[in-house]
Write a structure and sequence with these properties.
Blueprint (H helix, E strand, L loop, with lengths): L5 H16 L14 H11 L7 E4 L7 E6 L9 E6 L19 E2 L2 E3 L3 H20 L8 E6 L10 H7 L1 H4 L3 E4 L5 E2 L6 E8 L1 E10 L3 E2 L9 H14 L8 H7 L6 H7 L5 H7 L3 H11 L2 E9 L5 E2 L2 E10 L5 H12 L6 E9 L2 E2 L5 H13 L4 E7 L5 H5 L4 E4 L9 H7 L6 E3 H19 L1
Parallel strand pairs: 3-6, 3-7, 7-18, 9-17
Antiparallel strand pairs: 1-2, 2-6, 4-5, 5-19, 8-9, 9-16, 10-14, 10-15, 11-13, 12-14
Helix pairs in contact: 1-3, 1-15, 3-15, 9-10, 12-15
Length: about 450
C-alpha cells in the first residue's frame, strides 16, 4: 500500500484554495475570465532553482495560459502533456450553502466553484510537477504542464489558440486532462473510469422573426416571442433516435442501476423508456446524454420595450453530437424537431467540433493501469465518453492520444461527480486532492522516467 505524503496534499489544497479565490469566472465574453491571475500564481509556485523557463501566453489581455516544458533526454521518447484549465463557470451565490469563492475546508471537503471542474486537478498537477522539479527529475521523454484559459467557453482563447499558434510549446504525443479517475467496484476487482472520448458540440443561434407593432393591440399580431416559445417547446419535446456504442456498453456495467435496467440502457429501442423509468434523475440524464444527440435551448434574447411587439428573438442552443454526427445531422434533427416552423427560422452555428476518441490500448493506457493498481490493487480501466467538452479534442485533432483522468477517493460517487460540474455547492474531498497529486508524480515517473 502506498504511503501518501500529507505535505503534498496540503500544498495542493492550498494552491487549489488560491485558484478558487482568484474568481476566474468565464461567462463566454472575451473580457471575462481574467485567468492571468491564476497563471501568474502557478508560475510563481513552479519557479524553483534550476527549473525550466515558463511562458505566459495570451491572445487577449488578462486571458493568459501558462506553459512549462521540461525537455526530455531522448528526443525519440514519447512526450506527455498534463493540461488543466483555470477558468470556472458563473455561479449564483444565493443558491449555495457557502461562499462559492471562499475556498473553505469543512469536514474534509474543499468548497468552491471549480473544486471539481477542474481546479483540483490543475492544482494537483502543478504540485506534482514542482515536486519532480525540486528533486531534480529528468524525464526521458518531454514533460509539458499547461494551466490553460477559456476551457469553459470552448477554448477559443485557450487550448485551441495555443494548439494553433504555439504547438511547438504545448504539443505532445500523449495528453491527460479532466473527467476520469473515479473508482467503482466490479465483479473481478475495482474499475477506474478513464475518459477516452467526448461528444461533439454545435453551439448555435436560432433567430425567430416577427413583425413589430404596438403592445396594446396584440390580436392577430406576428409576435416573434410567442413563436420563439413554440420553437423552444418543440426542441424540448424532440427525441432523436438512440445510439449505443461499445464504450457505452462498458459504462453501463458500472452504473448504480437495477440489473434489469442495464439491459434496457444498451438496447436502442428501449433506452428512452428505461431512462424514464429510472428513479435517479441524475443517472437518467447522464444515460440519455450518452446515447442521444441532445438539444438544450439555454439563452433567449428578444424584445426592446414592454409596449412593443418584438420582431426578432434569438435562442442560443447547446447541441451535443454523438460519434459520426456532423452539421448535416444537426440540421436534420432541427428540421425534424421544428417541423413547419423550420423554414421560418434561421440557424447560425458559431462553435462546432465533432466527437473525438482515443483508443485505450496505448503505452499511456498501460502506464495509467500500472499506476492505478498501486492505489487500487487489481484495478482495470473502463473507458467512458464525457457528455461535455474538454480541451482534449484539440490535441486529438493533431494526432495526440488524449485521456481524462485523475484519482478520486471512494467518497466521491459518480452521481456526485456528474452533478457537481457546474452545480450548486461544488466541492471536493481533500483526500481526492492528495491522491491525484501523488498519482500525477507516479505517472510521470512511470511513463517518462
Amino acid at each position: 500500500m502506498i504511503t501518501l505524503d500529507e505535505r503534498l496534499r496540503d500544498e495542493a489544497v492550498e494552491l487549489l484554495q488560491r485558484l478558487v479565490r482568484n474568481r476566474c469566472v468565464n461567462d463566454g465574453t472575451p473580457g471575462s475570465g481574467n485567468e492571468t491571475r491564476s497563471a501568474e500564481d502557478i508560475r510563481d509556485y513552479l519557479s524553483v532553482p534550476g527549473g525550466p523557463d515558463m511562458d505566459l501566453l495570451a491572445p487577449l489581455p488578462n486571458r493568459g495560459s501558462l506553459v512549462l516544458r521540461l525537455d526530455g533526454t531522448d528526443p525519440d521518447a514519447p512526450s506527455l502533456c498534463l493540461i488543466g484549465h483555470t477558468d470556472v463557470v458563473p455561479v449564483n451565490p444565493s443558491t449555495w450553502s457557502r461562499d462559492p469563492f471562499g475556498g473553505e475546508v469543512v469536514d474534509g471537503e474543499m468548497w468552491g466553484r471549480g473544486a471539481v471542474d477542474m481546479l483540483n486537478l490543475t492544482a494537483s498537477m502543478a504540485v506534482a510537477v514542482r515536486h519532480l522539479l525540486s528533486e531534480g527529475f529528468r524525464p526521458r521523454g518531454t514533460l509539458v504542464y499547461v494551466a490553460v484559459a477559456d476551457e469553459e467557453a470552448g477554448g477559443q482563447y485557450g487550448a485551441e489558440w495555443l494548439v494553433d499558434h504555439h504547438y511547438d510549446l504545448v504539443g505532445a504525443s500523449y495528453v491527460v486532462t479532466e473527467s476520469g479517475g473515479l473508482s467503482r467496484p466490479g465483479p473481478d476487482g475495482p474499475k477506474l473510469l478513464i475518459a477516452t472520448g467526448e461528444k461533439g458540440l454545435s453551439w448555435g443561434k436560432l433567430t425567430v422573426k416577427g413583425t413589430p407593432g404596438h403592445g396594446s393591440m396584440p390580436f392577430g399580431g406576428d409576435n416573434a416571442l410567442i413563436k420563439a416559445a413554440e420553437v423552444i417547446g418543440r426542441l424540448a419535446a424532440y427525441q432523436p433516435p438512440a445510439r449505443v456504442s461499445d464504450t457505452w456498453r462498458q459504462m453501463v456495467e458500472l452504473l448504480d442501476v437495477p440489473v434489469e435496467a442495464r439491459a434496457g440502457l444498451i438496447d436502442p429501442g428501449r433506452v428512452d423508456e428505461t431512462c424514464g423509468a429510472l428513479s435517479d434523475a441524475r443517472t437518467a440524464a447522464f444515460a440519455h446524454a450518452c446515447t442521444h444527440l441532445t438539444m438544450s435551448p439555454n439563452v433567449v434574447h428578444g424584445g426592446e420595450k414592454t409596449n412593443i411587439i418584438p420582431d426578432t428573438v434569438d435562442i442560443d442552443v447547446d447541441i451535443r453530437t454523438l460519434a459520426g454526427q456532423n452539421r448535416t445531422d444537426v440540421e436534420h434533427c432541427l428540421a425534424e424537431a421544428l417541423g413547419d416552423l423550420w423554414p421560418t427560422v434561421s440557424w447560425s452555428p458559431y462553435r462546432e467540433s465533432e466527437a473525438s476518441e482515443s483508443h485505450l490500448a496505448t503505452p499511456l493506457g498501460d502506464s495509467i493501469t500500472r499506476v492505478g493498481r498501486a492505489y487500487r490493487p487489481g484495478a482495470s480501466l473502463v473507458p467512458w465518453t464525457t457528455t461535455g467538452g474538454t480541451d482534449a479534442r484539440f490535441f486529438r485533432a493533431r494526432g495526440s492520444v488524449a485521456y481524462g483522468f485523475g484519482l478520486f477517493s471512494d467518497e466521491l460517487s459518480l452521481d456526485d461527480f456528474n452533478t457537481r460540474f457546474h452545480g450548486n455547492d461544488e466541492r471536493v474531498d481533500i483526500a481526492s486532492v492528495g491522491l491525484s497529486t501523488h498519482m500525477w508524480a507516479d505517472l510521470v515517473r512511470d511513463f517518462l522516467g
